[in-house]
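stage 2 :: seqdesign
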């Protein structure tokens, strides 16, 4: 590893409803996958700034950050993902950007294996930020 190595970084929000389902968005790009709200950091942004910006762009409303629950390295895409527990205001209205075609609340057992680990780490947060590689 050298100083000039390049890694992508992203920040993502775990938002749940009263039924403990997690909000996912369906992408209109790449493999049209369902994923947590959030996205890549712009140059000079902090992980918090990127999360606020990405969620506002994607959801059309601001998130309230509660805590950072984990940092995850994904070898397949040479990327670090920072996962935050977030909430929406009670009167929030989701208005998706052109990047996503729909949103849905998912039960934990509907999530992919990696997504479920990251979400469970977040929902079971004990004050210790998790760090894992996939």
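stage 2 :: out
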């Amino acid at each position: 590893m050298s100083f000039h190595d390049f890694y992508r970084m992203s920040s993502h929000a775990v938002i749940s409803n009263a039924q403990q389902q997690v909000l996912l968005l369906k992408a209109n790009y790449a493999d049209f996958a369902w994923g947590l709200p959030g996205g890549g950091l712009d140059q000079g942004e902090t992980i918090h700034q990127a999360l606020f910006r990405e969620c506002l762009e994607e959801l059309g409303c601001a998130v309230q950050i509660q805590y950072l629950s984990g940092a995850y390295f994904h070898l397949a895409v040479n990327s670090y993902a920072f996962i935050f527990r977030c909430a929406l205001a009670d009167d929030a209205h989701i208005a998706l950007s052109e990047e996503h075609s729909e949103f849905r609340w998912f039960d934990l057992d509907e999530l992919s294996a990696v997504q479920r680990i990251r979400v469970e780490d977040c929902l079971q947060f004990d004050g210790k930020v998790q760090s894992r590689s996939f």
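stage 3 :: structure notes
- The beta strands are 8-14, 22-27, 34-35, 38-40, 63-74, 79-88, 100-106, 130-133.
- Helices lie at 47-59, 113-123.
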